[in-house]
Every structure is written in structure tokens, then in C-alpha cells.
Amino acid sequence: MLRSWRVKLKLLLATVTLVVLLSWLYLFVGSLEYGRFLLLPPCLGEQPSRDVEREALASRVRRVEEENHQLRLQLGQVQAEGSDGSPQWGVSAEDREPPRGERSNRTACPKQRTVHKCELLHVAIVCAGHNASRDVVTLVKSILFHRKNPLHFHFITDSVAHQILQTLFQSWMVPSVHVSFYNADDLKAGTHPPLCPPEVSWIPNKHYSGIYGLMKLTLTKALPSNLSKVIVLDTDITFATDIAELWAVFGKFSDKQVIGLVENQSDWYLGNLWKNHKPWPALGRGFNTGVILLLLDRLRRLGWEQMWRLTAERELMSMLSTSLADQDIFNAVIKQDPALVYRLPCFWNVQLSDHTRSEQCYTEVSDLKVIHWNSPKKLRVKNKHVEFFRNLYLTFLEYDGNLLRRELFGCASLPSPPSNQLQQALEELDEDDPCYDFRRQHLTQHRIHLFFLQYEFLALPNPTDVTLVAQLSMDRLQMLEAICKHWAGPISLALYMSDAEAQQFLRYAQASEVLSARRNVAYHIVYKEGQFYPINLLRNVALANTQTPYVFLTDIDFLPMYGLYDYLRNSIQQLELPQRKAALIVPAFETLHYRLTFPKSKAELLSMLDMGSLYTFRYHVWPKGHAPTDYAKWRTATVPYRVAWQPDFEPYVVVRRDCPKYDQRFVGFGWNKVSHIMELDAQEYELLVLPNAFMIHMPHAPSFDISKFRLSAGYRGCLQTLREEFHQDLSRRYGAAALKYLTAERSL
Fold this sequence. Notes:
By secondary structure, this protein is an alpha/beta fold. It has 26 helices and 23 strands. It is a single-pass type II membrane protein.
């Protein structure tokens, strides 16, 4: 038997070789000119003129190629058979040999594209919550890295993911990428109950994805009626190739096929994993729904909604609930009508869960197209190539998303109004301006990922509640735990980080008992770009995403006194702040010691002040910044007292959430808080010093920006220019009332 198999293999190999040689010889002898055109197009050739002679030649060559293709298929079948003649698992004709006109991804020439380079590709993703919103960014990065086509992402989201992803894509501003959002809450329970029946909320689901794991069943109804086809992806997918290759597979569907799926690579649907294991009905091993190709127009004509509902109702009578969410229902429908499914080669969904046959989907890791981390263990899954898969995933996880803002060559895209305005502003900048770098930084569009970690939103915040607002970079990360121990209330932080640093922060926060226990700390990542620290942009991001009526505007290197949160809420109520326009000043002190026994009261602080272990903040380098607080009066004060604005005053204050924004022209070091206090005064805020509140600045190494300020005369000169321009803008907004600021500046 084995000998006969070898003879048959050698005969087929010899036949294939002969046919290939004859076809190439025919091309060379028959017509050198047309042969050149026919040989070159797979890589770089030009398209010949469409005359009769060429068509006749091409027709003859196609017939020879077709015979060659059929022989290769027969050869593949012989190679795929074992000594017993049975086919190997997971090896289809399509896996062994790509259809004619396509190339293996291991050949020297790139695969011919069957999708027009400017065709818009549609991708649908269900995303709910903070964690899934992080996961989907890595998926999108992997798609954008390889893509050559315009993309339209359709996100079915809850309110949390909607806010996060909408802000992210608006700030990312990737050319030729469109984004639409659909409310998952409407799909859970129906748009207008009880007139409309619930969509999926009636289906019991044991899967960890919860009710959102059933949303893909509703896409024919949720997505626009004029959308004819879509690729549907789970958030735990990583692409290793151009998604256009997957889009091209739609062209291989037969007239009856409406769903493209990869066979499930675990034994789940075989029902032999444990005693009395009873999975939902499935065709053979069943199919995995992490990657789906949906022909929406055909599904609508077939009555997909009624089809899956009836199937689910029937099976739930005995199964009681789904175990694998939408995947169980998709498989039950396909079991009933196998003609609906197109079997995708398994390299389009290599499923990395324990005990799968994923390794049979590829002979080399370079064959991979889509990796699916569909185990709850995610990166800790067992697979002999898991290190390669993990490194590929981590590459995209930490990849600089700014690099993906590239234009698609040869595809006209309609820029959005914000990008138009930004481009116009950039073009108006004078590159010979000595302060060009400052102005360019002000116009830089930073990517923003809101609520990077789990955050519990307040249903009805207390009318006197207050949020601590601050910003930081990686070098101040060590302050977070201490601040959380000193402040029990809500916190809103903007973190300036690279993509890689954001992942380091994530690991740090998840490993910290203090930080991981808090659900009222909002972390907003502003991704690095440019040469200056955008301090006021960061403050505005943290400020804009607070929920409480009041905010405590501070810096990350200050520790508030113990109990300050409760003290501020009581002060807001006692001073009737909701009925007046006031800024409450928290006096600032500092220590030069890295280890400090933190004072538990004002009396202890005054004692340490007298002994020289504490100082009023910056008294020795910048006394004007806090001198108007009047520390001498504060020592004996028992009630709040009013102070007047003075030049360069920059206290830390509690104000209403709708206070003026920080002026973002001020980047790096200098005048970033001074300008804000000046505008509060211009809007006639009372400045009230709290008698029993304090905060202490902890020592740290000087920032890079303060070093530039001290060493560069050009830096200081540009700061002065920006100050003058700010005064002019203030005068335009507030008229004669703002003249006092310019007069006070000049008197100094």
C-alpha cells in the first residue's frame, strides 16, 4: 500500500513538472512580448492591450493552468492521506492549495489582491465595559497596521464603551477610518418595550461575556439596512495580515451560503469533555464565532431574525441556557441547515484555548492570519508556539498608535471638519517663528483613552461632593498609592504616557492592593506626542471627566491632609457655595525630606513649621506664587477669610466643575496655573482661604521642562511672548476689567 502510494506520488509530481515546463516553453516561443505581460503581472507587470491575439493566447494558457491546478489538487489529496488512506483533520483543498489566481503567503510574490484598494470594508465589533474597550484598541491596531483599504468600524456598545471609544477615535484622527456606534441597551431589551419584543435579554447565558455575548445575533437588525456584508470580530482577536484578504472571501460564497465561519478547534461540541457533558447541537465539531463573515442582505431575505429565535426557543426548552453565548445558537441554526455556512480555512481563526487543535491550522507561524485568544486564560494559554503569539500580541499592545495615522496612497478620503481646521491652523504657523515649537505643541492632537481602568460612575452625586483632579507622567506614579490613602473621595487623573508605558501602568495598578481596591479613581491616558509636556491639556482632560459638582484642582506631588475630603464637603455646604461664585484655597506647604511623619492636625503642622521640618510652599524660590494666601493670618484663623488676587498668584483651589478651562497654549513649565487663577478672578470668583485645610508638597527630582526653563533663554523668551498674547486675549474677552492684570504685570 505504501509503495503504491509513493509510485502514485512520483507520477503526479513528474506530470505537474512536465505541464509547467511545457506552458513556460510555449509562452517563450509563442510570443515574447505577450509572454512578458503574462509572466510579470503577479508581481509587477503592466497590463497588455486587449486585442484578439492576446485573448486567444491567454485562453490557451488558462486551459493549461486549469489542468495544472487540477493535478495539484490531486497531488494535495495524495499528500493529505495517511497510510490508511483517511484524510487528516483540518486539511481542506483550500488549505492545501489556494484557488487559482491566488498565491501562498510563502511565495516570493505578494498575493494578488481581489479587493479594490479603495473599497470600503465594514467591520462590526461588540464592545462593553472598560476592559473590552482596552482589548478592542489592540485589535484595531493590528488591523490598521496591515490594512490598505478604507475601513468602517461598527461598534455595538454600552454607554461606557461608547464614551471611551468615541473620544479615542475622535482624538486618534486616523485617515480613511469611519466609526459608527449602536446602543447595546436597545438591543438587549428592544427599542420600545413592550411594543417591541426583547432582542436577547430573554436568553439565559452562562458565558463570561454575559448578555453582550449574544449581541452578534442581532446585527441584521442593528446595522444599517443598506449594509450588505460585514466582518464580525471578537475583541480578543489579533490580525497578522491585511483584513482585505478576509473580505475577499465573500466572493467565494455560493448562492446559498450566508455565513462564513472557521470550524471549532476544541472538542466542546463533540460532547466528550466530561461525563454527562451535553453541548448544544452542532455540525460535527461545530463552528467558532470569533470571526464571522455575514452576508446581511441575504440573511435578511431569509428571515434570519425569526430563524435564530425559533431555533433558540426550541433548544432552550431542553438546554435551559447557552454555555457559549451566540456561538451555541449559530451552531444550532447551521446544524438545521448546513448549506448556510461557508467553511473558512482555519488559519482565519486560530483558537488559542487549552486542548484545541489549533496547531494543525498552520505548518509555519508565518502561515497565520488571525489569532484568537478565546480562553479565559488569554496570554497564559497552553500552546507550543504561545511565546510567538504572545510577542505578536504584545507588539500591537505597545505599538505607538500615532504611527497608524498614515494616509492611504491613491485613495481619496473626505477629512472631517476637526482635521480640516487643524490642518489649516498648522499651515498658518510660521516655521521661522522662534516660538514655533510651542505653537506646534499647542495644536498637537493627542490620542485620549478615557477611563482606562474600571470605574464606578455615580448614579446621583451628592450636591456638595468634590473630586480631586490632577495630572502625572510615569515618573510620578509612586505618588498614587499615598494620595489614595489620604483622599477617600473620587479622583480624576490624566496620565501622559506612551502606549508601552500605559501597559506598564496597567500592570502596576492591577498589582497594587491599594489601587486595585478603588473603583472611584478615573485614569485617563493622554498619549505622548511632541517635545513639551502638555500640562494644561492634561488638566482639562481630567477636569472634563469628573462627575461631582465640585473639583479640587491640585498637583500629583501634593498629599492632602487626612480627612480633607470630608472637610471640603462640609465647607461647601456651610459656605453655601452653590449660591455663590467662589474658589476655596487650600494652603500649600512643603517638606524637603523624603520621609515625613505626616501631621494629623493644623496644630501639629504649625509645630513642624516652627521647628523647620516644614515650610510654606516655594517660599525660598517663588514666594509670589503663594504669598497672597497670607500664611501669617492663616496660623490663627478659625473661619474662612477673603484674599485679593495678586500677580503670579497660583493657589490650589476648590471650584465648581463648570469653571473656566486651563489655557492650553501654556505647555511645559511656567504660567500654566497663574493664567487659570487670573481668569477665575476676571470672572469675579471670590478667593476664600480655608482655615483648617492644608496640603504638603513631597520632594522629587526636577522635571525636564523646569530644567529647560532654567537653562534656555529662548524658552523663557517664548513664555513671555505667550503671556503677552494671553493678556491680549483676556482683554478681548473681559474688556476693561482685564486691564488691571496687564498694569500689575508691567508694574513688576
